[in-house]
Write a sequence for this structure.
């Protein structure tokens, strides 16, 4: 599967919230204190496809009752942005167990292919 094929079939991907975003990978919930389950101040980071208008790769950061979705022209840029969002959360003292893992563009493409069957 290519990037263009994945974007072309974006409408077939299962939606999340917001419904125009289809996640390919999601981080575990990153929180300030990982000894206790749950907690305030958590954040979830997802890389996927934004389907509002022309489909594009995107990173969705959800936390504190807000969501921020940033679109990217290429899958490589999306993977880098996802990894940077994970690193930024780590710098802010947010962690998870198991630890959130960075991804490559190839891993995002493979996740999309698995979701589309």
């Amino acid at each position: 599967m290519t990037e263009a094929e994945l974007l072309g079939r974006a409408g077939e991907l299962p939606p999340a919230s917001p419904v125009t975003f289809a996640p390919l990978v999601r981080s575990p919930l990153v929180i300030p204190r990982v000894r206790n389950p749950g907690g305030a101040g958590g954040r979830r980071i997802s890389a996927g496809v934004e389907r509002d208008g022309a489909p594009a790769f995107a990173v969705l950061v959800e936390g504190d009752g807000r969501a921020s979705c940033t679109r990217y022209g290429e899958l490589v840029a999306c993977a880098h942005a996802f990894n940077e969002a994970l690193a930024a959360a780590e710098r802010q003292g947010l962690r998870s167990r198991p630890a959130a893992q960075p991804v490559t563009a190839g891993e995002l493409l493979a996740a999309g292919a698995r979701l589309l069957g």
Helices lie at 3-8, 75-91, 105-116.
